[in-house]
Amino acid sequence: MELLTDSKMFCGCSTQFGRPPNTQVCPVCLGLPGALPVANKKAIELGIKTAIALNCRINNNFLFVRKSYFYPDLPKNFQISQYRDPIAVKGHLYVDDKSIGIARIHLEEDTGKLIHDEKTGLWSCIDFNRSGIPLMEIVTEPEISSPEEAEKFLEKLKRIISYIGVSDCIMEEGSLRCDANISVRKTSDDKLGTKIEVKNMNSFRAVRRALAFEEKRLIELVDKGISVQQETRLWNEQLQITQGMRTKEEAHDYRYFPEPDLLPFNITEDFIYKIRSEIGELPDDREKRFQKDYNLSSYDSKILTSKKSIADYFENAVSFYNKPKLIGNWLQTELLGLLKENHCDIVECKITPEFLAKIVKMVDEKIISNNTGKIILREIFSTGQDPEILVRDKNLVQITDEEEIEKLVQEVLEQYPQAISDYRSGKIQAFGFLMGQIMKKSNNKANPGIVKQFLQKELSKNMDREKE
Ligand SMILES: [Zn+2]
């Protein structure tokens, strides 16, 4: 995954996404002769942060190596990476109470991006803006036992990584990529079967599907007694199948050796301690605390802690109106829906946590109706106005005065005698019609609960009279 740094791994060029091609380059990331790399301190901090969050052992002494291969997107003909002494090893991550081992975490630099002319096939271009962007590779132990578990693992990992601000994990922008290895074996065998590597998946769902496809294909091979050849395969999203790319015979010999232009690193315990103190609460802990402190269901806690920005927003809103369950409901059903509809992030939203709390409070205290609350929410989503002022200026305060409502009910009943006899003759939908007319007459401000009570009372009175 790409790390959230402002500058590249070994030079000062910007990492901003979506800029015009080859505008964020320098001699270092273009691989010009004689250019010397300088390691990005922030990238190393983020690597250590990840290592701590994934319970890894941090290598106090690590170094960078050259991984040699030839490809047009790699101008130096080698990539600066890590091999034998990566930044961290031996961690773990829990997925549904099962511990999945993390074998290693290493840092390296990204390559340039090739753009091919799909129509004529006559030309290809290279954009070096991506060349040298810090990458972090996380390798798991072969302990994930199903395609579903692989998908869950990725979701969990993404939540942690984005929580601690290490990467934005946007698969569509390529800031998170995944290569998955799979093998099958008979339950009677101890040894793992020959592994297949699958690449080119651009969503977690695609990872699950690609692995499920391979699982089925490999089991069929083994059942037929055909031995599996180690190979790399590509997922074809359109056809929903994997296709062979290269076999082991074509695999590279990377000729790893220490990068002579960078000294080995020595990380002090003080440096690690400082990073540890900056991490804050991890998502799993926060989810548990939400259940305990706010008395929320595990489902609600999961959604409200799915992103750090959402969890922060929720706690902030609760600090203005201490009804966590209500705030949580409004946040999940109304606000998150509105954000999704408008492709807006919660941090850019004009409805501040205080405003949401004010709306929930007004609905809870029956100052405004539930429906008015939803309308106000939509309005201040674009205007950013204080909801209390809006309610006062637009005179949206709910009518709860019983005398006033009784009068409204009677007026409407006098106006629609036909609806009354319809209701009496068993046409229940006439009740809804009358409700609607009363609400309309009150400009939607009457409290629907009280209206319903009075309407029921009046209609049954009429029916009693009829019987007499
Ligand atoms: Zn550069």
Q: How confident is the prediction overall: mean pLDDT?
A: 90
Number of domains: 3
Gross morphology is elongated
Beta-sheet strand percentage? 15-25%
- How do the SSEs run, as a string of H and E? HEEEEEEEEEHEEHEEEEHHHHHHHHHHHH
Kindly report how far apart the N and C termini lie: 80 Å
Main sheet: which strands, in order across? Answer: 1-5-6-9
Main sheet record: 4 strands, antiparallel
Radius of gyration: 31 Å
Strands, count: 15
Helix % is: 40-55%
Task: Please give a structural write-up.
The chain is of the alpha+beta class and 468 residues long. It has three domains: 41-179 and 252-272, no CATH class; 281-393, no CATH class; 402-467, Arc Repressor Mutant, subunit A, CATH 1.10.10.410. It contains 15 helices and 15 strands. The chain has a four-stranded antiparallel sheet. A four-stranded mixed sheet has the order 10-11-12-13, covered by helices on one side. The mean pLDDT is 90. Bound molecules: zinc ion. Residues 8, 11, 13, 25-26, 28-29, 132 line the site of zinc ion. Zinc ion (ZN) binds next to loops.
In short:
Helix content is 43%, strand content 15%. By secondary structure, the protein is an alpha+beta fold.
List keywords for this structure.
single chain, 468 residues, alpha+beta, Arc Repressor Mutant, subunit A, 3 domains, four-stranded antiparallel beta sheet, four-stranded mixed beta sheet, 15% strand, binds zinc ion
Secondary-structure map with pairings?
Elements: H1 41-53, E1 57-58, E2 61-62, E3 65-68, E4 78-81, E5 88-95, E6 98-109, E7 113-116, E8 124-127, E9 134-140, H2 147-163, E10 180-182, E11 196-199, H3 204-223, E12 231-236, E13 241-247, E14 257-258, E15 265-266, H4 269-279, H5 283-294, H6 298-304, H7 308-320, H8 324-341, H9 353-364, H10 370-383, H11 387-393, H12 402-415, H13 417-424, H14 429-441, H15 448-467
Helix pairs in contact: 1-4, 2-3, 5-6, 7-8, 7-9, 8-9, 9-10, 12-14, 12-15, 13-14, 14-15
This protein binds zinc ion.
Zinc ion binds near residues 11, 13, 25, 28 and 132.
